[in-house]
């Protein structure tokens, strides 16, 4: 075999091997993607979307527009250290929050929305299920400054790190009949928790309390769901 023929054969073999490797890698990536998609939950499957009304709570001593705005489907909430609470004489921390008017004491209820947490927000509750027998709330999702933004249940279990400056999909299911709360972030179940007792409950989101200088969240696609399967 002359040099030209040998070169042609070698080139063919190399191309064949590279093509096989590329095909194998592509197939592997596709399988991994399919597995990832198949393991994602659909927290609202089997639930009934329900209309709701809401109110906005901001520091009592200044115009609402100083701490809240709404535009193009996005609610913007922000507070500063030293801000007042929502009404004169109250002793809670500063807040700029959407209070959903969905009071309930029984049944299955679900909050859904997308949140963008601005970097620097710290010591701040971004979503809560209000009402409890042993505490004022059934659950709070709280942003901490560590690890580029860490979402925790209160100051306890870590639910997500690297949470700053990106949209995060949030679902919180509350089975009030059985006292259980299920928290999903980006369609992954992050934890199941006791709801701290029977009470009148409702959903809130925005910013409440602060340990830094300024806290801000942006919320969109906020929905209310009722009566579906929990913890799927």
UniProtKB/TrEMBL annotation:
Transmembrane segments: none annotated. It comes from the Bacteria. Residues 65-223 form the Alginate lyase domain. Residues 1-25 form the signal peptide. InterPro entries: Alginate_lyase_2, ConA-like_dom_sf. Gene3D superfamilies: 2.60.120.200. GO terms for molecular function: lyase activity. Keywords: Lyase, Signal. Pfam families: Alginate_lyase2 (PF08787). SUPFAM superfamilies: Concanavalin A-like lectins/glucanases. PANTHER family: BINDING PROTEIN, PUTATIVE, EXPRESSED-RELATED, OS12G0171100 PROTEIN. This is Polysaccharide lyase family 7 protein.
């Amino acid at each position: 075999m002359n040099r030209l023929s040998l070169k042609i054969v070698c080139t063919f073999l190399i191309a064949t091997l590279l093509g096989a490797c590329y095909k194998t890698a592509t197939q592997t990536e596709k399988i991994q993607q399919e597995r990832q998609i198949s393991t994602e939950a659909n927290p609202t499957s089997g639930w009934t979307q329900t209309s709701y009304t809401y109110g906005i709570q901001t520091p009592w001593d200044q115009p609402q527009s100083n701490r809240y705005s709404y535009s193009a489907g996005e609610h913007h909430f922000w507070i500063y250290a030293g801000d007042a609470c929502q009404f004169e004489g109250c002793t809670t921390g500063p807040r700029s929050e959407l209070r959903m008017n969905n009071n309930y004491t029984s049944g299955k209820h679900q909050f859904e929305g997308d949140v963008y947490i601005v970097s620097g927000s710290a010591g701040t509750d971004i979503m809560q299920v209000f009402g409890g027998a042993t505490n004022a709330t059934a659950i709070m999702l709280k942003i901490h400054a560590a690890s580029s933004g860490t979402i925790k249940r209160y100051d306890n279990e870590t639910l997500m790190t690297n949470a700053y400056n990106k949209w995060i999909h949030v679902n919180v299911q509350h089975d009030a009949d059985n006292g259980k709360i299920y928290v999903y972030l980006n369609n992954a179940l992050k934890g199941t928790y006791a709801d701290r007792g029977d009470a009148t409950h409702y959903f809130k989101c925005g910013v409440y309390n602060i340990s830094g200088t300024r806290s801000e969240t942006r919320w969109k696609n906020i929905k209310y769901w009722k009566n579906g399967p929990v913890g799927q």
